[in-house]
Amino acid sequence: MIEKINLNNILFLDIETVPEEENFNSLDAEMQSLWDHKTQYQRKDAFSPEEFYERAGIWAEFGKIICISVGYFTIKGDIRNFRVTSFFGDEKKILKDFNNLLNNHFNQPQHLLCGHNAKEFDIPFLARRMIINQIAIPDKLNLFGKKPWEIAHLDTLELWKFGDYKHFTSLKLLTKILGIPSPKGDIDGSQVAHVFYVEKDIDRIVTYCEKDTIAVAQIFLRLRREDLLIDEEIIHV
C-alpha cells in the first residue's frame, strides 16, 4: 500500500540523456558499424544510420547523461516542503555526485527511488553508464541477486498500469488526466540534444528535468489521494 510509505524516505528522480557524440561522423568506424547493427530493426529502410543517430541518447551504449534531477520531501509536523536539486556538467562527475547522494543519504532499507518509467529507462541507464565510467554501482541501483520484493524502486508508470504490462502512459498524459499542472516547458525530450549541443543551454535542460521530477512527485501524491504541492512548498537548492 503506497499510502503507508513515509514520503520522507523517497528520492524522486529524472534524467536527461543525449547522444554521446554530437553527430554520427564523430564516431569511429567501429562504433558507426555497431550503431548500424544495433538500430537496424528500428530503422528498417526508413532512415540511414546517420539520420537515426539523433535518437542515440536512449541507448546507454551510445548516449550519455547530462543531467540528473532529484527531489525529496521534508515533512515536519504540518509543514511540508519538496526540495529539488540537479547534477549536471561532466557525466563522470554527475554520476559520482549522484552516487555520493545515494550512499550517504538514501542508503537505508526503508529508502526508495521513484521515477516515471524509471525501472525500464532511468535506473538501467544510470547503472550502465556508471559501469562504463568505472564507478561502483550503489546498492540502490545494483539489482543482481535481489528478489523482486528487495528492489527499492517505485515507478509511477508501473503503479498506473495496475498489472497491464502492454500499456504505456506518458508523463505528460498522466499529469493531464490527473489534473496536475503540466511539467513541460518550452522544450520536450526530442529537443534536448539540440539544446545541449547546438544552443549549449544546459540551464534550460536543468529546468526541464526538474519540472519532470516535480511532476513524478505530484503523480505519487495524487495516487495517494493527497493534496498536490503548491509553488510555495517547492524549494530549489
TrEMBL record:
Enzyme Commission number, as recorded:
3.1.-.-
Domain Predicted 3'-5' exonuclease PolB-like spans what residues? 62-225
Mind telling me which InterPro entries this protein's record contains?
3'-5'_exonuclease_PolB-like, RNaseH-like_sf, RNaseH_sf
The alphabetical list of record keywords is: Exonuclease, Hydrolase, Nuclease
Q: Which GO terms describe its molecular function?
A: exonuclease activity; nucleic acid binding
Q: What class of enzyme is it?
A: hydrolase
Q: Identify this protein by name.
A: 3'-5' exonuclease
Q: What is the phylogenetic placement of the source species in the record?
A: Bacteria, Pseudomonadati, Bacteroidota, Flavobacteriia, Flavobacteriales
